[in-house]
Known about the structure:
Layout: H1 2-5, H2 9-16, H3 29-40, H4 45-48, H5 50-55, E1 56-57, H6 59-63, H7 65-86, H8 93-101, H9 103-139, H10 141-145, H11 149-169, H12 171-198, H13 206-211, E2 214-215, H14 227-237, H15 239-244, H16 250-253, H17 261-289, H18 301-317, H19 319-353, H20 360-363, H21 373-386, H22 407-434, H23 449-466, H24 490-512, H25 522-529
Antiparallel strand pairs: 1-2
Helix pairs in contact: 3-12, 3-17, 3-19, 7-17, 7-22, 7-23, 8-9, 8-22, 9-11, 9-19, 9-21, 9-22, 9-24, 11-19, 11-21, 12-17, 12-19, 18-19, 19-21, 22-23, 22-24
Amino acid sequence: MADNDNLTEDEKHLARLGYKQELHRSWSGFSNFAISFSIISILAGCFTTFGQGFNNGGPVAISWGWPIVSIFILIIGLTMSELVSAYPTSGGIYWWASKLGGPAAGFFAGWLNLIGLVAVTASVAYGCATFIDLTISTWSESFAADYSLTRVFIIFVVVLVLASVLNIFSGHLMAIINNVSVWWHVVGAAVIVLILIFVPDYHQSFGYVFAERFNNSGYSDGSSSSGTYWLLVVPFGLLLTQYTITGFDASAHLSEETSAASSAAAKGIWQSIFYSAIGGWILLLAFLFAVPNGADGLPDNAGVGAGGVAYIFTSSLGTGLAGLVLFISAAGQFFCTTACMTSASRMTFAFSRDGAIPGSRLWSKLSDAKVPANAVMLVAVVSALITLPALIEVNLGTEADPLIVPTAFYAVVSVAVIGLYLAFLIPIWLRWRIGDAFELGAWNNGAKYKWMNLVAVIEIAIISIYFILPFVPQGNPFNDDFSPKFANYAPVLTLGALLVLTIWWHASAKHWFKGPKHTIDEAVIEAFDA
């Protein structure tokens, strides 16, 4: 036991869970918080999916929808904080599910989590590319005139390559980058809010921001009072919040590299949600108050619906300041992309370490810098492949008056949301089912888990149903105007993946996949338990 006495408390905790310390534990509690805060990234989701909320419900879907949905997401985060405190491993969601529900639960949770992490990496990188293009286009008319989806896709690939190189170079470098990212997000968001308060000549009223409703989805003939509006259209608008505040499981995936992980990773999850919810709401309200008026003197809802936040900035601020705001967002989105890549690669490493991914030996290999470099490259390649449909132009308007909608982008966003949250659901449900027999960590919810975990499961089940539905009527296969390019292919990817996983599990995986594999001797684990 002499050797055991030389281990840190983090290493002892990890050893009790069956693993030796392989990754470099150089992350502080702040760095752990920083990666989840960076992945949530209010400078990413609030900008890239603003149009989803605005067109599906109007300002009320944002001003009221954001704080309401944020509360439910915080409850989800608190249930996960309790789990990471008890089990601070890089496997995160998958490891918890395996521990509480056995190999099958771990297998499905792990694959859903991995699908979600890769999809969120792809979606954030594509959003970053879009805003880099918008920034340059705002400052250069000739660049703007040559716009094409192919150009955006090329920028997207470059973003993925740069994020990969940074991730491969050093794990500690990523901790530093995420620390910088926090301040970029805080200061950058504050600068944007102040610009939107003091520069525009006119601001919308509180009545507009908190009561204006409209429906640009195409459903229910544009009605903003029908049952379809409240039960279908507005929930589509809530994708803005549900997508933006996600990826906070990164604090769990980096727990093996974090000091005092049992408490630091737990706080990293819930605090990243809490502060992002507040900052994001302030930022979105600033957007809504800055919505410009049209020639008729009324809010230009159609213009904003077609042009998104970029239209608000260029109309209310002029090209100079608009370009600055877009640059701040694009840089924040690049920070977010690198953080997403880190989280996804650590999950790939941990899942491969336990033999769950074809080619596991390759993906679980660490470089000399103690970084899963092969896993990083795998995430980048798959991210590019699943975003290829973004090259297909989808015009919901006419040739004379085009309305280009990034349907493929929203589909990848949906896959990210569904994959991640369904993965979260499995261990959250299993923890509720095991009840008071659950071995609590240093940070826990006490008896409140009895209602919190149930609320979390119900919310996840509801949003998962909405995000596989077609966002526009033309995406409905039973609609006379149906066209595949309008379709939300999230259900094809998600349900198709579940079908493949189910067949794979019963035909093969259940015979060889036994859950987490220990990387230290059983005798050592027994010594710690004693």
